[in-house]
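Record 1 of the preview.
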Amino acid sequence: MTTADRQGERVARRQVDKFEERRRELAGAALQTLSELGYARTSLREIAQNSPFSHGVLHYYFRDKVDLITYCVRQYKADCVHRYDRIVTDSDTAAELRAGLAAGLAETLVEDAAMHRLWYDLRAQALFEESFRADVLEIDGTLQDMIWRIVTRYARLSDAEPAPSPAAAYAMLDGLFQQQLLHHLAGDAEARTRLARDAALLLGLAVPGGG
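->
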């Protein structure tokens, strides 16, 4: 490879990095509007009106509303996965892991309620709109893998075996979280406490004989 070729590759990488950085910036600015209004009531034009960026700029970096929303949710859920990975790696006992999971879910229920609401909105839309399905299934898969890492780590720390399949373990915890999110959005002050308590109980049920 010549010096000119290497320089050309570096320039191309910088351009790709700048494009991706710009997409992250635009997505961050759009999240507030998206999370407040949801999928059905939000258009690129509506997002532009509530952000510092023009409709034309948004359209340049994102093909359409679907592209923007899935990018936003994918970015946020990736951060969620890493957050729980730290809980897994930092826990030295089963009790620590159970407490860390319960506290982490309770915290994000309150602090990130709007983003979780957007995710469930997107997942529901995927039942009707084929354009969402591949992205939603991929994101859902990463979340299932995250829950399974927690369950299997808990099992190892407890010297026990998980009872459910990865899909069943995810369905239990995700169903609980969605239920308590709805209660939280309805103004139920006890939703956070119930989520923490019941998440810890479910983890114990997933690993019979666990610590």
